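Risk register update: the risk of archive-format incompatibility is retired. Evidence:
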Amino acid sequence: MVDFPGPRDPSHLHVSRRHFFGLGTSSLALLLASCGQTQPGSSTSKGVSIAPTLRLAFQPPYIGVFVLQQQKLLEQAFKGTSIDIQYRLLLSLDPIAEALSGGSVDLGMGGTPIAAIASHQPIRVVAVVEHSPKTHAILVRSNSSIKTIQDLKGKKIGGPSGKNDSFPLLVLQRAGIKETEVEWLKLENNEGRSALLTGAIDAWRTWDPFYADIQTTKEAIPLVDGESYIQNYVALFGRTNYVTSYPDTVKRFIQAYKQALDYVKSHHTTAVNLFVEKNKLTSQVAELTLSRRQYVIEAPTQDYIDDLVQQSKLLKQFGVLQQEPDWTTVVDTTLAKQALGS
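Archived output:
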């Protein structure tokens, strides 16, 4: 597990993305074949095939994953099997999608990787795990001359996805600013804070806990948050051949994750303390982050799918996508329903 450095010193943000995104990949023997077959290294449990690995890539805000680890819920869910359980903490969606497509992880948790799916990466969405629009923001320095969205014209905006992000594109569009009238910089979340505070960028597009961290120190203020602009659904997704070959593995993960979220809801103080410990942040930042996040575990809903369609149309309009994905073939609503009994 990679821990996050403390919130006070801006120098802690200069961490190489490679530090979080290791170069190691599994051998091709772990790439999965046809649905229902037992692969080399896999095991069986009560007549069903269990994957040889369950390697999850996730981001700092997902307290449920930390609980999975602490309470060893996945170990309990797969007791009696030989599955290798691994966790990889990454800072944003793009490296998660890269790791998934490259075969170094099996499941990912984050905003739906629309661009990767549109470029025909074999990714299958299996559940919704969060719905939290207020946790995203575009931030400016507390003493910035930028007071309104209109003031962003001609300015530099930095964020993990650069221009390839429906939230800032929509904010600018509604304000009557063309995307070509701002300068876009792609900055990972460990670089954005120092870039904003040193003036390398004028506005920082990020999310909690990075947003909450700099907000609580009063070094930056939100020019706008995601409410009224984005739904911010967070999804659980996996490599298509992994999901189709090992549906029972995915269902057991979903059931264990529900246990983790139930624990978070009934042990708030413990969850806050765990969040502080794992992310090396203050309790104030942890409380603010958790207060703005609505953690859920459910099958993908029609509202979620409609949001994906709207985002895809927007991204295609701005030239980010060449074509919109066929979401009917990407989103699986059955596994989560079976796992959760809904």
